[in-house]
Amino acid sequence: MSQVWVQDFRHGSMDQKELLGGKGAHLAEMTRMGLPVPAGFTITTEACRWYLTHGAPPDGLAEQVDAHVAVLESAMGKRLGDRRDPLLVSVRSGGARSMPGMMETVLDVGLNDESVLGLAEQSGNPRFAWDSYRRLVHMFGTTVLGIADRPFADALDKAKAAQGVSRDVDLDAGALQQLVGTYRELVRELAGREFPTGPREQLELAIAAVFRSWNAERAVVYRRQERIPADSGTAVNVMAMVYGNLGRTRAPASRSPVTRPPAPPASTATTWPTPRGRTSSRASATRCR
């Protein structure tokens, strides 16, 4: 029997934290409880350990990911990167023990020059669609291809100056579309390759980047400080994107940030609407602007 490298959220549980990571195990448990969790799947810590040992994905991983993407597409009624109604996914790390902000995340995987038009049509919000695409190219460039953040930040500042605005959220759809082109030119110049527009290639490269982030300097330092075993590896959670930057988003909080009532017990949390923008582009303090 071939090794199982990928597990649907519906088939896991909390007692599999070492295999699915803490995040993956919690997502599986909440799915099992019938809570409204976006559909997705977890690539196991075993796959990560294989990748880090051999420098390449294990045999069968790509095929298993493809099979689970097909299940995800069926569940969501969308196709990854579809030009009319695209499924987009997030690719997130998740070790057995929490390492907040130490590893990588890639959002909006599946966007390209065609699917961005489908997202604009389905959302009725071209600005949202082009902003999501901009964020993907930026995040992909820094997280997956190793480009420094500064060139992207400088390009964003120039775009705002050209439009006479000071905030990212005040850039209109046209400016964001031009910024996507600028970002892709930066990728071509600084990474020596084109930004990958194929959704499956984006997903494959994003998964590998999350695996590699287990050995990023900040992650290694954090593990030493917290006495987390260096050989445990991270799981990778791939799940359907649920957007908050259409105007309002929801961030987990123990009480309303507006009324600030007395805090409830630590075991409880609720969600409260927050203004325009995503809850977080990454778990760390680094903003994808």
UniProtKB/TrEMBL annotation:
Region (Disordered): 249-289
Entries under Pfam families matching the protein: PPDK_N
Organism for this UniProt entry: Modestobacter roseus
UniProt protein name: Pyruvate,orthophosphate dikinase
Biased segments, Low complexity type: 266-289
Gene3D superfamilies (UniProt xref): 1.20.80.30, ATP-grasp fold, A domain
Alphabetical UniProt keywords: Kinase, Pyruvate, Transferase
GO function terms (MF aspect): ATP binding; kinase activity; pyruvate, phosphate dikinase activity
Record flagged with keyword tRNA processing: no
Domain Pyruvate phosphate dikinase AMP/ATP-binding per the UniProt entry, residue ranges: 18-56, 62-245
